[in-house]
Design goal:
The chain has 4 helices and 10 strands. By secondary structure, the chain is of the alpha+beta class. The protein has one domain: 3-Layer(aba) Sandwich (Protein Transport Mog1p, Chain A). The strands form 2 sheets. A 7-stranded antiparallel β-sheet has the order 3-4-5-9-8-7-6, sandwiched between helices. Strands 1-2-10 form a 3-stranded antiparallel β-sheet. The longest helix is centred in the N-terminal third of the chain and has 14 residues. It starts with 8 loop residues before the first helix and ends with a strand.
Length: 185
Amino acid sequence: MKVNSLKKYPLIILTILLLSVLSSGCIFDNGNKTNQTKNYTQNGISFDYPGQWGIANTTVNNTIVAVADPASIDPNTGFATTVAVIQKLTLPSGSNMADIYNRNYEALFNNSSHQRISEGNITLDSLKAFENVYTLNENGIQKQQRALWIENNHTIYVILCSAKVTDFNNEKQNFDMIIYSFKIQ
């Protein structure tokens, strides 16, 4: 998908982020049913994730991989509600990640179902990352999401961790495992 206008880019990112979470419900069983850690190393990235989680299918553009907790599959939708999605977007020429990030969240928070909890900066694998934590109502399910944006070599990587509001704090350790082990190769 080509984007001709930088103005349209934040809306594309927003759409991709939301569709990633919605479409990452089918989970493959890697044959490992223990609580041990698994590792994903493909497509120029690597990270650890919980051993009971699996790789989730998604057809959303720009998604490198999605991992999800099969125990969180909603019987009404068939989609996992606890998921981490990694996306890769090329930084448009003449733009910077801060501008795209700010425009994306400006558009996102104009939607009344999204409420910011916190925003800040962290360092991941020696790279500066923007962090945004917020709640939203998605198909009648109240969710909390933590999004981290990292730029390396004119490429933006987005790590989006999502769970039901009631489950989010219990998943913090799992999300932190993914986030703090994330490496760009």
